[in-house]
Amino acid sequence: EPGTPKGPTVTTTLSNTDLGTVKGATATPEIAVSIDMGKAASLDELLENLRQDHQRKPADKAISEKLSQVLLKKISTIRQKSMEELEPLFKEAQEAAPDNFYVHYSWGSMYFSRENFEAVVLHMEPALALQPDHLDANRKLGYSLMKMLKYDDALIPFERALKQAPKDFYLLYFIGRCYSELKEYDKAIEVW
Predict the structure, then answer these.
(1) What angle, 0 to 180 degrees and rounded to 10, lies between the N-to-C axes of helices 101-113 and 135-147?
(2) What is the pLDDT of residues 160-171, one digit of tens each?
(3) Is 109 helix (H, G, I), strand (E, B) or coil?
(4) pLDDT bracket for residue 5 (50, 70, 90)
(5) What's the pLDDT tens digit per position in 73-119?
(6) N or C, where is the chain less crowded by C-beta within 10 Å?
(7) Rounded Cα distance, 5 and 31, in Å
(8) What digits encode the pLDDT tens for the residues 25-40?
(9) What is the DSSP letter of 36?
(10) DSSP states of 139-187 as a string?
(11) Is 64 in contact with 50 (CB distance < 8 Å)?
(12) CB atoms < 10 A from the CB of 39, how many?
């Protein structure tokens, strides 16, 4: 059938478990990525083939997207490595598909799981420019800004997330905490 993979397929699922979640965050849908391995015997071989294809046809969006997906898969298989080792793969994925939300989100989430909140902000902002209502990305951005003591800024993504999850205990707590730190006690009490 058209669109059916011709060779072995590798399926990866990127979930909040893999990428780190905000405490108490409800699960967001997992991202299942099926990768047609074609004639490649391994993920590394497929990655090398896609890199060559991308060099020959840099404007081919399908190749760029697939390269970006395979790079994310590669990252998910070695996520325990240091960010210095993962960073070049994330950069390559971003260069291949700069408008791929999941590259930015995964990159920011990887930093979130390592509590590098400045880097989370750097990568979640472009992710949210692509998908402004993504619940978990807004939570992670808000939490990171709050940890950086940027309470006014943290309220913006927290409020966006609250529109989707109006009874989320942790969101309400974090919003109240931001208001309390800003000495807006009436608003903090109202939220709590």
Answers:
(1) 40
(2) 999 999 999 999
(3) helix
(4) very low
(5) 999 888 889 889 999 999 999 999 999 999 999 999 999 999 999 99
(6) N
(7) 19
(8) 433 333 444 555 555 5
(9) E
(10) HHHHHHHHHTT-HHHHHHHHHHHHHH-TT-HHHHHHHHHHHHHTT-HHH
(11) no
(12) 10
Query: Tokens at residue 143, please?
Result: 């939490």
Q: Are 73 and 43 in contact (CB under 8 A)?
A: yes
Q: How far apart are CA 24 and CA 10, in angstroms?
A: 31
For residues 27 and 82, give the distance between their C-alpha atoms in angstroms, rounded to a whole number. 26
Q: Is the pTM of this model over 0.70?
A: yes
From the CB of residue 29, how many other CB atoms can be counted at a distance below 10 Å?
A: 9
Helices (H) and strands (E) in the chain, counts: 10, 2
Cβ neighbours of residue 135 closer than 8 Å, sequence gap 6 or more = 25, 26, 28, 161, 164, 165
CA distance 109 to 143: 12
Residue 114 DSSP SS3? coil
